[in-house]
Amino acid sequence: MTLINLPARAPAAPDGFRTMEAREGTLRLLPEPAGLTPIWGFDGASPGPLLRYKKGDEVKIRLVNRLSQPLTLSWQGVRIVNAMDGVGGLTQEPAPPGGSFDYRFTPPDSGLFWYHPHVLPLLGEQLERGLYGVLIVDEADPPAADKDMLVVLDDWTLDGEARIAGFGAEAAGPGRIGSCVTLNSAQTPATLTMPPASRLRLRILNAANARIMQISFDGVKPWILAVDGQPCEAFEPNRQTIPVGPGARFDVMMDLPDQPGARAVLTLRGDGEADRALLEIKTEGAKRPELSPIGSLPENPLLPRAIRLEASRKIDVTIEAVSPPAAAASGRLLYWKLNGTAWDGWARKPLFSVKRGAPVTLGLVNRTPFVQQIHVHGHHMRLLHDLDDGWEPYWRDSVLVPAGKTKHVAFVADNPGKWVIEGLTAERQCSGMATWFEVS
């Protein structure tokens, strides 16, 4: 798959359901003469089919499992009804090999989201094999852009025969960091040519299991329009760089240079390795007529304008390593614990329970030597300032917590059901770093 100039919506079946099969496929991840890489993908592709809807449309997806492992579809970032959240063993029974499951919901928000399985302890392997895709719910009045493009970033661990390897690697450490970095499952850098002064909208997703991608914009000024699917007041990122943790999404708008022969580059900054060019954009031809300045997307009126922090339920979630690793009843090793417990699967009781509409403040206490990306299902959160003087001017469904530090987030628990709190490094979820709370 190359850079996607976002297509029109695909027609549904007569009963309104779009069938997606999880099945085997292949990708060209390495240049010839290396062989094709066997993968698992939705409809045999990775990323799987782009699911695109207008706001207010009902999503009706029939998952058909043609693989050897049980599967679900979890819809990250969607403030979804709980029965459709797709968490195996907590909100639904997974679709067994040869089975199926129908997902039916109406997303309340427009934005950039993604879907993937959520069955512990299989999640890491299933993501590493390529089982994920993108869901876009369009704004009622999308901002003008000459191209609207999807950028799905991933890294792959491959053996000498171009096969995916290293499942569960580094579960006790930084997580599996693959050396083969791709954009839309193709080799980097991708290249694009557009007229001078063209306006480009990039919808960026980090689908990697563990790699935190520091993405810099060189030769162009980026404006962030939305974070984790939720609109924000448009802003320039610090040092023209955004930290994109696993599962994070950024909507970026930018105007290319207004002279021909210019070059803009999206660069993955190396962490102990060389920088990599991900996308190279060149300008060619006649200058595009000038556009009005880039503006903000309308704010989401369904999210609270204020959160009563003084009245909030305050809960600390302490993240620690298990030393030595604990052997679970299933035979798996558990390397991580939340609030003193490493769960083998889902606990019988919630970490906490609140009434619908209650404000909640979570203290995310990272007592590990690694950055942790912590995700909360079914809700969006404000990241509170470290000095307790307000919150960041955007919403998140997951936050990065530096090693040895504490971050505080706040949200209104307005979505009833059982909701997961987890580390988004997949190997950590599968070895103890996952719990849940209940909204009644």
Chain oligomer state: single chain
Can you summarize the main beta sheet?
8 strands, mixed
As a whole number of angstroms, the C-alpha radius of gyration is 21 Å
C-alpha termini separation: 43 Å
What is the overall shape? globular
Number of helices: 2
Proportion in helices = under 10%
How many DSSP E strands?
A: 32
Q: Average the pLDDT over all residues and give the rounded result.
A: 93
Strand content: 35-45%
Low-confidence stretches: 1-5
Which class of secondary structure composition applies to the elements? mainly beta
From the structure above, extract its key features.
44% strand, eight-stranded mixed sheet, mainly beta, 32 strands, 440 residues, single chain
Concise account of the structure shown:
It contains two helices and 32 strands.
Write up what this structure looks like.
Strands 1, 10, 11, 12, 14, 16, 17 and 19 form an eight-stranded mixed β-sheet that branches. Strands 23-22-25-30-27-28 form a six-stranded mixed β-sheet, with no helix packed on it. It has a five-stranded mixed β-sheet with strand order 13-21-20-15-18, with no helix packed on it. A hairpin with a 6-residue loop joins strand 27 and strand 28 (391-396). The protein has helices spanning 123-128, 426-429, and strands at 4-5, 18-27, 37-42, 51-54, 59-65, 74-76, 100-105, 111-116, 133-138, 147-156, 180-183, 186-187, 190-194, 199-206, 213-218, 221-227, 230-235, 241-244, 249-255, 263-268, 276-283, 313-327, 333-338, 353-354, 358-366, 372-376, 381-384, 391-396, 398-401, 406-413, 417-423, 434-439. By secondary structure, the chain is an all-beta fold. Mean pLDDT is 93; it is low at 1-5.
